[in-house]
Amino acid sequence: MADNKPTFHHMDNSQSQRILWLLEELSIPYNLVSHLRNPQTHPKGPFLSPDTLKATGPYGKAPVLFTGAADGNRYITETQAIATYLLRTYDTEDKFGLKNGDWVRDEMLCSYIQTTLQRTSTFMLMLDFGLVRNGAPEMGPAGKRFDGPAMRDALKDLERELKEGPEGGFLMGRFPGRADIILEFPMSMIKQRNWVDLKNEFPALDAWLGRVYERPAWKRGIEKGNGYDLTVFPQRPHL
């Protein structure tokens, strides 16, 4: 029988940390290849993926997963695609509920996080990198809206989903679902970079993130990773 152990390519200080968390939650054997993000002083690509990661395939960005031989050694990129493959393949007890749980809720929340929330996070990061200027006349009203208010609107929706959704402390109930895995990275960005005072403004989300960080699988993923400091990128004052 062909070996089906996946190989995961991870980069420090990146969204691939949440896939390490998922791999540890699944408690499956896997190969881990760690890459270091280009330093700020890199002459051509500061903070970008290193050449070692680019050499893995045409996308060349973390996360990257190669399936085992039984699944054809397939090359999979993008967090949600990797998470879906791992759960459909290895979550034989359906703890994440992707097979027999409320998959419609899970899909809706994943889509919301990856579009609405992630868009606001990306804009805040662009402000921090100086790619756009907050309050600049050429930005018009949108410049001020995306410097905080749009993110808070998205967080209000997710705060409500936590409070009114299934009991148990996670978006999908007592056990993290795929949506919880997807949500970790933007929430860690917001928390670490202090874009929003989560504890005072969105206490349910702040408590949710605390529960994530206390999970043994999360802690194992952090130990196996090579750093998760999301404050290494430039930071500027916000409106």
Automatic annotation (TrEMBL):
GST N-terminal domain segment(s): 3-94
Residue ranges that the Swiss-Prot or TrEMBL entry lists as coiled coil: none
Residue ranges of domain GST C-terminal in the record: 106-238
Pfam family, one: GST_N_3
Family of the protein in this entry: Belongs to the GST superfamily.
PANTHER family: GLUTATHIONE S-TRANSFERASE 1, GLUTATHIONE S-TRANSFERASE-RELATED
Descriptive protein name: Glutathione S-transferase
Taxonomic lineage: Eukaryota, Fungi, Dikarya, Ascomycota, Pezizomycotina
